[in-house]
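Worked Example 4.2. Consider the chain below.
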Amino acid sequence: MDTYDEAVLKKDFKHLAVDKSYLYDAILRSMRDYHSKKSRAAQIKEKLIDAKYLYERELYDLCELALQEAKEMATDLGDHLSLLEINKQLRKVVKTTKKGIAEGKLTDLQEETRSISSGLLEEFRTLDVYDNILAKTFIGEGLKEEEKVRFEDQLEYFDKRKEKGFDSIAAEHRYYQALGIYHSLLQNNEAYFKASEQVMNWWDRHPIYKDEEFYNYIIDVSNFLAACFRRERFDLFNELLQRLEDENPSSIHHQKVLFQRLAQFKLVYSINLGIVDNAIRVAQSIEEGLSKFTINPSTEKVLLMNMAILLFIAEEQSECLKWSNLLIRNKSQVRLDINRGIYFIKLIAAYEIDDFDLVENTYRSANRFLSKTQPQHINYYIQFLTQFKKVVDSPLSELKEQLKQLKSYIELMRSEISGRVPLGGVDEMTMCWIDSRLERKSIAEIVKGN
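Applying the procedure from the previous section yields the following C-alpha cells:
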C-alpha cells in the first residue's frame, strides 16, 4: 500500500493481528537464517545453542568442541559478552566430566574470566565517554569549561591505555570515535582529521571487523571523507572514494548504503570543485542505483537535486531538465525546500536552451508551488522569480544590466536573512551562472575560480 490503511486490510484478513504477528516472526526468522551464514556473531550464538543441546544429551566432548570453536571466533571478534557465556558453559562441562580439574582447568577458566571482564569493563567505559560526548552534539549546546575538563581527563586516561595496549579491540575503536566527536564539537578540524584517520587505521588493522560490521565501516569512512574534504586533503579523499568503489558487499542492504554514500560524496566533490568531465557517467551510475535500490525520500531528493546541479554546472542543460523533472514529480512532503529550489535550476536551464514556452510554464508552476507550500521567506522566492523574469524578458541590449540587478538582489537578501538563503545552494549556482554570462566563461570555470 502507498498509504497503510488497516480498515481495508481487515476486509481481506479476518485475523489481521495474528497474521501480522506471524509475518513479523517469519521475516525475522528469514533474516536470521540469511545473516547467520555470513555473520561470525550469529555463528557464535548458534554454536552456543548447539553446545547447550549437546550438553543436555550428555555428548560432552562434542559440546566442548562446539564451545572451543565459538571461543576462537569470539576471541577474533573481541566479543567479551560471548566469551563470558562460553567460559560459564566450559566450567559446567569441566565440573560435570571432572576432566582437567586436577590439572587446574577450573583455575585457568577463573583467570580467563577476570581477563575477559577487564576487557568488557574497558569497552563499556569507552562507550560511556562516547555516548556522553555524542549526547552533547544532539543537544546542540557548547561545552562548559567543567565538561571540557572532565572529557579531557577521560580521553587522556584512554590515551595512556593506548600506549600500553587496550584489553578490548572495540574499546580502542570507540576511543578514536569519541576523540573525533569531541574535537568536532570544539571545531578543531586538524584534531578531528587526525582522530578520523586513526579510526580508519583501526579498520585496516582489523579487517575481520569490516566483514562483520560493514555498515559501521561505511559510516566511519563517510566521516573521514568529510574530514578530508574539510582539510582539502583531496589526495586521501579520492583514494577513499576508490576504496569504496572497489567494495563489493553481498548484502543488498549494504550495497544500498554504499551506493548512497558514494553517490553523495561524488556529487559534493564534483559540484564544489567544478569537476564536470564525467557528469554524464555519474548521472548514469546514479540512475542505475536509484532503479535498483529503494532509497528513503529525503536521500533520494538530495541525490536528484545534486545531480541536476552538477549537470547544470556541466552545461548539460537538457539532462539537467530531465533530472529536475524527476525531482518535481517526487511528491513526498519531506525536504520541500529542495522541491522549491529545483524550480529555479529548471528555469535557468530552460532559458539556456532557448525554450521560452518551458520558461513560462516553469515560472507559473513555481508560483503555484510556492503559494501552496507557503515557505518561510516566501517574499524572497517571489522576488527572485520576478527579478529572473526581467532577465528573460529583457532585450539583448539590457541583458547585462538585468543580470547585475539579479545578482545584487541575491546579495541583498543574503545580508537581510543572515546569509541563510533557503534555496539549498541554488542562489550560489545562480550567482555562478550570472558571472559566467558576464565574464564569458563556462559555469565550471567560475565554480573552480570560487
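The mean pLDDT is 92. The two ends are 47 Å apart (CA to CA). Compare this with Example 4.1 before moving on.
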